[in-house]
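Weekly sync, protein design subgroup
Attendees: M.S., D.O., the rotation student, P.L. (late)

Item 1: inverse folding check
M.S. brought a backbone from last month's batch and wanted to see whether the design step gives back something sensible before we order anything. D.O. pointed out we never logged the input encoding, so this time it goes straight into the notes. Structure tokens as presented (330 positions):
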């Protein structure tokens, strides 16, 4: 292949010469994207936005706002109370297993069998799962549930966005609200268990402090009663030492009693888990499939692949031409 003298090769010009190829590739990609998008069932996404409730119970039992903050009581008792933890909790496989057992109103079955019986799948999905055993089927359904649950945490605004996607908009709204309730119950169980454990530990520490206080009190009183007539420096020093131990034990006992009252108050009045900033509503428009996204992706891939073919074909022809020329010179 020879070119006129002064000819400069351009990739853009080469692609423009084969515009029909690009037009055919774009048209084929457009039809394929529309066909695939039409084969996918419509899905709807329902959302709930929650925020950690920052009402610290310590403030209600004697500490002022600054003291509660300075003691680190909020972070100390935070535990699950973090948007990131909320987000991770609802997207685990264990949580998906729990959601699979939730009864779906209107369908008289649980969420697991609802997906098996009422979810539509594209034709190629059925071919891929022909002959699956029950174990594979169970894992596949749990994976679908896990993929349908999405969460997004914002540490800046201290909020968590919960989302459930389903082919039925009513079921999507119902399931995301169920997730909110289940998450709240899980957090309350965690708070109660932790508060009860803290109360048991506070009782043990208070009993030990009381024992030390009673012993120090008895030692001081016994020594003072038996040494009333003694005024020697050694006796006075021993009495002062026992009195100091008695005061120290008394202060420690009072401190543990205060911690015991605090632990009992925290158990009796559990703090709110989170506030609901956005309630679940039935979505009116489908969130998937995104036909425009499919079209843009397929057309981009088709045009890119066509460009590689056109330019590669050009380079191959140049290579063969040079090889033929070299062979002629030999």
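Designed sequence read out in the meeting:
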């Amino acid at each position: 292949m020879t070119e006129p003298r002064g000819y400069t090769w351009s990739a853009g010009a080469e692609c423009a010469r084969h515009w029909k190829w690009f037009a055919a590739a774009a048209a084929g990609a457009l039809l394929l994207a529309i066909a695939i998008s039409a084969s996918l069932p419509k899905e709807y996404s329902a959302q709930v936005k929650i925020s950690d409730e920052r009402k610290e119970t310590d403030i209600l039992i004697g500490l002022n706002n600054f003291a509660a903050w300075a003691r680190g009581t909020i972070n100390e008792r935070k535990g699950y109370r973090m948007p990131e933890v909320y987000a991770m909790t609802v997207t685990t496989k264990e949580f998906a297993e729990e959601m699979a057992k939730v009864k779906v109103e209107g369908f008289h079955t649980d969420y697991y069998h609802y997906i098996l019986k009422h979810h539509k799948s594209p034709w190629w999905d059925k071919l891929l799962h022909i002959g699956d055993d029950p174990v594979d089927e169970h894992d596949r359904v749990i994976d679908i549930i896990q993929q349908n649950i999405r969460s997004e945490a914002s540490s800046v605004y201290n909020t968590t966005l919960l989302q459930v996607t389903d082919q039925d908009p009513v079921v999507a709204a119902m399931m995301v609200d169920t997730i909110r309730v289940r998450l709240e119950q899980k957090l309350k169980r965690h708070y109660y268990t932790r508060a009860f454990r803290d109360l048991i530990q506070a009782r043990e520490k208070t009993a030990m402090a009381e024992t030390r206080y009673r012993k120090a009190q008895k030692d001081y009183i016994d020594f003072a009663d038996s040494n009333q007539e003694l005024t020697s420096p050694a006796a006075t020093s021993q009495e002062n030492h026992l009195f100091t131990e008695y005061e120290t034990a008394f202060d420690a006992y009072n401190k543990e009693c205060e911690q015991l009252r605090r632990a009992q108050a925290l158990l009796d009045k559990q703090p709110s888990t989170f506030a609901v900033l956005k309630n679940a509503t039935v979505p009116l428009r489908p969130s998937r499939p995104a036909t425009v996204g499919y079209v843009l992706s397929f057309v981009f891939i088709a045009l890119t692949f066509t460009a590689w073919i056109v330019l590669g074909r050009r380079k191959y022809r140049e290579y063969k031409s040079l090889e033929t020329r070299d062979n002629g010179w030999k």
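Discussion: Confidence is low (pLDDT under 50) at residues 55-77. The CA atoms of residues 122 and 128 lie 10 Å apart.
Action: P.L. to compare against the previous round before Friday.
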